[in-house]
Amino acid sequence: MARTRTPDNPVACYRLAAVDRALKFFQRNFPGTILYSVKTNPDLVVLDELYANGVRSFDVASIAETQLIAERFPDARICYMHPVKSRASIRQTYFEYGVRVYTLDTADELEKIMASTDNANDLTLLVRLSVPNTHSEMNLSEKFGVSFSEAPDLMLQVRKKAKRVGVCFHVGSQCMNPAAYGIAIGMAGDLIKASGVMIDILDVGGGFPSVYANMMPPAMIDYMQEINASFEEIPASGACELWAEPGRALVAEAGSTVARVELRRGDRLYLNDGTHGSLFDAGTPGFVFPVRAVRLRGKLSPKLIPFTFYGPTCDGLDYMKGPFLLPADIHESDYVEIGNTGAYGACLRTRFNGYGVHDAALLKDAPVMTMYGDRAGRGKAKQLRGSTVTPFPRP
Ligand SMILES: Cc1ncc(COP(=O)(O)O)c(C=O)c1O
User: Fold this and answer.
1) Could you report the per-residue pLDDT of 238-280, keeping only the tens digit for each?
2) Candidates 3.20.20.10, 2.60.40.60, 3.50.50.60, 3.40.50.360; correct CATH number of 16-250?
3) Which atom of ligand 1 lies closest to the CA of 136?
4) Which one, 26, 90, 156, 179, has least CB within 10 Å?
5) Domain covering 2-12+252-391, topology
């Protein structure tokens, strides 16, 4: 692709077959309803691919995400899973877009939901429980979730108002240990006992990992088995629906970014994409995305050495430590394909300093690294040679 197009802008690439493969894994192995977490990647090609392959429930976090899904997929179920919402957005999502599923982690938010829906009697309300995020790269438990000690009282208040009651949690994004789900589901079971409130839905949230050069998670099937086994242990699990809100694990490896080397200074490569573009997670979060180099004419050295990256903006934080292993003789005008950027990549891009304009391409080959190398969802690295490219129609 880089050789045929020699793009001046970074190129956001999608391998939609990778979306299908990840989704099929979840559909085969997760014994419940899959809500795609729209924030992870709201690009229309990705949403359309998920919908075409059977996803009908979506986790949204804003009025804009609600509008996007409601207009694109009128028959979809939209679940507003942000624990802190404005009164206006609750009202609009309920009355204009037919949303009936909301989450909350405080009594104040419950009051907001009830007042903004004119005390609706058809709501499904999920209490978000704070659970340990110790095995995850991105901690969400400080910001959201009711503590276990305060949760029983909130459950009782919700039970009085809601048609259906659920418990949800998030173990933190890029969770590297399946046991985190077992611990959290166990806490949900204890909450049922402590509150005496039987639940209609247990939602295990997101957090399912992808694979990166510095992070090879356990096989995805281990996460599913842990969830299955722990779910069976909670009171009245037979009458309870099981939901999950995967984001990263469905779309990360379907995306990659092709960036050009604008300058080399020793082991530092200055690229035309960076942390204010589609590589946010390579900055402070320190993700080491898998990479490979492409040279327009001539061969690259087979010897790989570690590099750090700088992005195109003037911000010193536009820095990606790596180490990114690339050919020792890489130089200005070579391209770097940065793999597995499909989650929290393009959607975090800004126009800071006038950058952020991207081209796009659909690719047909395998992702740079995959979680779904076999039926058990075991991670596998695959170094790629060439890519088959089709033009990418922007919606
Ligand atoms: C409520 C909620 N659900 C699901 C997700 C998706 O998480 P992940 O991409 O780790 O699967 C997030 C991510 O922040 C979230 O906040």
Assistant:
1) 889 999 999 999 999 999 999 999 999 999 999 999 999 999 9
2) 3.20.20.10
3) 10
4) 156
5) Lyase, Ornithine Decarboxylase; Chain A, domain 1 (2.40.37)
